[in-house]
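Service request form, structural biology core

Requester: graduate student, group of Dr. S.
Request type: structure prediction, single chain
Budget code: on file
Notes: please return the result as structure tokens.

Sequence provided:
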Amino acid sequence: LGPDSSNEALGLTGLAEVLAKQNRHAEAEATAREAVRIAEQATIEQAILRARSYRTLAIALQAVKPAESADAWAKAIELRRAIVGNQPEVAQLLRRRAAVLQQLGQFDEAVECCREVLAISRQRTDAPMALAMAHTQLADALREAGRPAEAETTLREALTAGHETPDQPLVRFALVEALIDLGKLSDADSEVGELERILAPNSRPIMRAMTQTARAKLLLAQGDFTAAESQLLETLGQLRWQQHPQARLHAATVLGQCLIQTNRFDEAEQHLLRVERLSYRYNVRPDDVRRLLKILVNLYSALNKPEEADRWRQRLQQTQVSVDDNQ
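Core staff response, request fulfilled:
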């Protein structure tokens, strides 16, 4: 094929992404930039090659040069959108860029990316779960931006429109968190009560566990730490890492928050470190691990251990690089 062929560019993008996953950031960046160089001068399938190579460059840069990564994601989005229009794969790229913008503290810009994701998801009438997730991701971005009232509005709009599935009401779980952020504990109690009401004897274990965890979060906000801890321990006793890793991680993370709020810092540290190890052993999605890592950063900052806080901050950045494209 000779030098600088389209196949060489594709091979370089694959290699760069493997190097990024191995945290070999300088090699990943150099490889991705070479792929971009070839793609820019390609005469066959140039548009597809350019979109792919800029996506790979964004991945390679994300952990060490997030500002440049955000720009590369923007370019990849522009190029891919020109090829396929506003399709689900463009929404995936927008989610990735939103994560980098949050990493940079550019929360309002991240919100706008999530709004675009929601707009794309609304075009699909055959994917109610994708639409529910788009609403919850926008609400999470709004909460990160310090705009919990808008998060509540977004989630209530989703509930009104029926954008959740009967067996996994993601929207209502997210609404409970937004209401707790706003200090609307009575409204949060009503939503948790609704989750408890729709539980049936044959409800899936993950549904029951998430509902119990929502109740525990509310108890924490109400200052009833003993009841919250008891609820969380009961929930964890019903879950196994092998069967329900996401739900197990969620409940365990809230238990860590409970231990911190009761000033049991040594217990919290041991518990959270163990949960972090198990979450990787059982291949929990990186996106679900991020909340746990944020708590570890805050814990070590509060304990005046800046080196440990920095170590976990770096792990958080690496995890953001690894967020699954299929989420």
